[in-house]
């Protein structure tokens, strides 16, 4: 969801005389921590369900990646938007970890977002998602909010945590671009 809002945020920042150069000069502590957490998530998502080792330890690696991201964010909590990013990441971590390592997704929300072809994959367990059921813990934190164009480029179902992450990153980029030198 994040990339959907980056273009408007950058455009608004440019209109306010912002610059990507200023953003690039933002001092981010422990960058390697962020990169490690993101890299672990990308590897796990790419190789699941292709590699039995990752398939059998999916929940563990997802938990590790989230904890690394939260730690890296905490080290940078002084930056604008990062506390909101921490909140969103923590909400997603909480719902994922309490539901066995996968993000529950509402099948009705998938239908409303015109993503019905994705439903069999969710039901079969081929994705990072699992169906939201009456047994799902913290269902209000799951992927339950359907979004369709023109709000986003392509249809998707998001969680409250995804929205907080997106707002946090957007605020970080905006403030980083328009800050005074």
Report on this structure.
- The protein is mainly α and 181 residues long.
- It has one domain.
- 59% of the residues lie in helices and 7% in strands.
- A two-stranded parallel sheet has the order 1-2. The chain has a two-stranded antiparallel sheet with strand order 3-4.
- The two termini are 30 Å apart.
- The model has no long low-confidence stretch (mean pLDDT 92).
What's the helix and strand layout?
Layout: H1 2-15, H2 20-24, H3 31-47, H4 52-56, H5 58-74, H6 82-98, E1 103-105, H7 107-112, H8 119-124, E2 129-131, E3 145-147, E4 156-158, H9 160-178
Parallel strand pairs: 1-2
Antiparallel strand pairs: 3-4
Helix pairs in contact: 1-9, 3-5, 5-6, 6-9
Which descriptors apply to this entry?
181 residues, 59% helix, 9 helices, mainly alpha, 7% strand, single chain, two-stranded antiparallel ribbon, two-stranded parallel sheet
Which oligomerization state do the chains in this entry correspond to? single chain
String of helices and strands: HHHHHHEHHEEEH
Number of helices: 9
Helix content: 55-70%
Tell me the β content: 5-15%
Alpha-carbon distance between the two ends: 30 Å
- Coarse shape: globular
**Which strand order do you get reading across the main beta sheet?**
1-2
Instruction: Please compute the radius of gyration using only Cα atoms.
Output: 17 Å
Q: How many domains make up the 3D coordinates? A: 1
Structural class: mainly alpha
Low-confidence stretches: none
- Characterize the largest beta sheet: strand count, sense, and whether it forms a barrel: 2 strands, parallel
Mean pLDDT: 92
Total beta strand runs: 4
């Amino acid at each position: 969801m994040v990339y959907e809002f980056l273009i408007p945020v950058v455009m608004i920042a440019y209109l306010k005389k912002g610059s990507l150069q200023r953003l690039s000069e933002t001092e981010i502590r422990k960058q390697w921590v962020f990169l490690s957490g993101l890299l672990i998530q990308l590897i796990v998502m790419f190789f699941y369900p292709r590699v039995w080792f990752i398939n059998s330890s999916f929940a563990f690696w997802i938990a590790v990646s989230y904890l690394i991201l939260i730690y890296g964010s905490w080290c940078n909590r002084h930056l604008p938007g990062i506390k909101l990013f921490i909140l969103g990441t923590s909400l997603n971590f909480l719902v994922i970890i309490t539901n066995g390592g996968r993000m529950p997704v509402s099948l009705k929300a998938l239908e409303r977002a015109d993503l019905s072809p994705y439903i069999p994959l969710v039901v079969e367990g081929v994705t990072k998602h699992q169906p939201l059921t009456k047994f799902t813990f913290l269902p209000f934190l799951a992927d339950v909010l359907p979004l369709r164009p023109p709000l986003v480029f392509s249809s998707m179902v998001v969680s409250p945590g995804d929205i907080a992450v997106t707002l946090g990153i957007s605020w970080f980029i905006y403030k980083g671009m328009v800050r005074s030198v």
